[in-house]
Amino acid sequence: MIIILARKTLRYLLPYRFLFLVAIAQVILLNALELLKPWPLKLIIDNVQVGGQPLPWEFLKGLSRETLLLIICIGLVLIYLLWGGLSVLHNYTTISIGQRMVNDLRGDLYSHLQRLSLAFHNRQQVGDLLYRIATDTYAIQSLTMNTAIPILSAVVFLVGMFVIMVQLDPLLTFLALSVCPALFITLSLLNRPINRAATQSHQQESVVYSLVQRNISAMRIIQAFTKEDEEHKKFMAASRESLAARLRLYNLQSLYSGAVSLVSAVGTALVVWVAANQVLAGDLTVGELVLFTSYLASLYDPINSISQTYGMTQWAQVGVMRVFEILDIERDLPEGTKTFPAVGARGEIVWDNVSFDYLPDQPTLKQINLRVRMGQKVAIVGPTGAGKSTLVSLLPRFYDPQVGRVTIDGIDVREFQLKSLRRQIGMVLQPPIVFPLSFRENIAYGRPDATLSEVVTAARLARIHDLIISTPQGYDTAVGERGATLSEGERQRLTIARAILLDAPILILDEPTSSVDAETEALIMEGLDRLTVGRTTLIIAHRLSTVRQADSIVVLRAGQIVEQGTFAELMSRRSEFAALYRTQFSLQGEK
Ligand code: ATP
Predict the structure, then answer these.
(1) Alpha helix (H) ranges present in 218-227?
(2) Which CA distances in Å does 494 have to 438, 516, 529, 550?
(3) Which of 19, 29, 299, 415 is 20 to 30 Å apart from 252, CA to CA?
């Protein structure tokens, strides 16, 4: 598990391998300087003070004590200066590698999410995905730069210290290093509970995100039903759970740091006791004792800091795993290879014995056989929940059927590249989605290269042009977040203009006029009539008045086609459609 995670993480480090090598070189230099730090003090104690041994270097012999002291002090300042400068550089290097890795991982995750099917997105909580993109991706930086580098640094320091110490006193060296196994045992004992706490903490935090996301999108309903207090209580309950999980994690981290400090203190005491006895017996100089104890402090420092960041490491590990969990999900809509010719599809569509279910054993569409000829206008009607939207959503492959196939111009839609396939289909979907962009950008969303005059023509056909030019900046006026500054009907017309501009050979119009008044509906239908000429068109309609002109009407009930024919044909017999039509007509008449 850890190895797989490491391999995947390393893939993101690979592009920055040269920078990483620079960071390693900096670590080695920094540790060499760290090892040098206690030497000036040792030299002063052992060699410069009265009665000390003369310094072993020829070129320093004959100098007065004061001069030697000055040279050693200048050396000390130089070591600290170099160390300080290098530390700053090293921080910059590691942060820049870490941040770039986060950026790459985030880009991959976002791109992958966009390619996962709607079936995946229906299952997933938006808030959880947001949390994974916004927060979990940072974990790759913590995992590599805040963990790998300190561990590497500790190892380099340990080796350097071992080489120096073993020459001075092998027994003391052994004693000092004997603390390491005890530290690692403590580390492994607390590993599992910390990991569990970190996972819970991530999950609870993402629950809070999901709740906020859901409630902000449903603010209108919450306020309409005055549910603010209840929703606040729910939020606080989730937030408290998250707090509890975090506190559990911090408690375990503190416990861990405490245990490490205790083990380090025992180790230091042991070394000082043995070393002091050796000094008293004349086997060790006071300077060497100082050197050993300061090395010990420097050794425990990185181990201590690893231990303190250990909880964070576990947190980071879980975060990175949550990101890879999504990246590992195979695209459930495998890409085909075929593309449509440049002139576009002819638009002959067939549902060939198609069955589909969103959830196992709950069929939404059952053995659908339907042929739509090139340029035909087909209306799909039926009671709510009959499967009308599902039927048309198989065409652009929002979902793939479990049984049967959908073909365009005789070829299974699964064989086409998704981009090429979807470029053939202009869609007006429910609910009408409008982006917080300008009117022009909204209409040209599917064809950003469209000229202004093309955009205006589409807007005129969709009966939205007059509204646009009445705004302060006309086509450059920005539409509010989620189209809030537009009415439902206006948003619908904007999405119709978007579909018109795409100029695709196949059109899917899901309730294209459901939110407009009768007069606007007539105007839009007139525009759509012009638009649909020569294009294969599928219209899902509740208002049966809009389907009179259709070449064929398909009546769907409980996932099955129960009737099919022209308006005149269906009205002339005692059909379900005729009954539905008469009911609607008489209801409208009553109004
Ligand atoms: P309406 O006229 O109300 O828009 P419809 O005829 O277009 O309805 P669909 O939206 O296709 O019906 O839904 C058909 C059935 O599939 C319904 O029972 C619905 O609850 C179910 N359904 C739709 N989308 C999903 C989904 N993403 N996951 C699970 N079930 C779904």
Answers:
(1) 219-224
(2) 11, 12, 17, 23
(3) 299
Sequence length of the chain is: 591
Distance between Cα 401 and ligand 1 center (Å): 15
CA distances (Å), 440 to each of 427, 429, 493, in order? Answer: 18, 19, 13
Q: Which residues contact 256 (CB under 8 A, 6 or more apart)?
A: 186, 187, 190, 194, 307, 310, 311
- Residue 552: phi, psi to the nearest 5? -150, 145
pLDDT for residue 192? 76
Which residues surround ligand 1 with Cβ inside 6 Å? Answer: 122, 358-359, 364, 382, 384-390
CA 361/CA 464 separation, integer angstroms = 44
pLDDT tens readout for residues 528-584? 776 777 889 999 987 777 788 789 999 999 999 999 998 888 888 878 888 877 777
Backbone φ, ψ for residue 364 (5° rounding): -95, -40
**E strand or H helix that includes residue 256:** helix 228-280
Distances in Å between the Cα of 505 and the Cα atoms of 342, 348, 388, 443 are 12, 10, 21, 18
Amino acid at 124: Q
Q: Which residue has the tokens 């994974």?
A: 132
Write out 114-129 in H/E/C secondary structure: HHCCHHHHHHCCHHHH
Ligand 1 atom 10, closest CA: 389
What values do phi and psi take at 431, rounded to 5? -75, 155
Taking Cα atoms as reference points, which of 305, 190, 193, 300 lies closest to residue 256?
Answer: 190
Residue with tokens 């068109």: 537
- Tokens found for residue 392: 């048309």
**Residues 45, 52 contacting (CB under 8 angstroms):** yes
φ and ψ at residue 394, rounded to 5 degrees: -80, -20
Q: What's the CA-to-centroid distance between 358 and ligand 1, angstroms?
A: 9
Which residue has its alpha carbon closest to ligand 1 atom 19? 385
Give me the sheet containing 403-408, strands edge to edge: 362-372, 349-359, 403-408, 411-412
Distance 380 CA to ligand 1 centre (A): 14
Ligand 1, residue 382: give the atom nearest the CA: 6
- Whether the ω angle into residue 363 lies within 30 degrees of 0, i.e. cis, is no
pLDDT at 590: 44
Dist CA 375 CA 369 (whole Å)? 19
At residue 534, φ and ψ (nearest 5 deg) are 80, 0
DSSP-assigned beta bridge partners for residue 460: none
The CA 131 to ligand 1 mean position distance, Å, reads 28
- pLDDT tens, 283-296? 888 888 888 888 87
Crossing angle for the helix pair 17-36 and 149-168, to the nearest 10 degrees: 30
- DSSP state string for 338-370: B---TT-----EEEEEEEEEEETTEEEEEEEEE
Alpha-carbon gap, residue 357 to 390, rounded angstroms = 9
* pTM score: 0.72
Whether 103 shows a pLDDT value over 90: the answer reads: yes
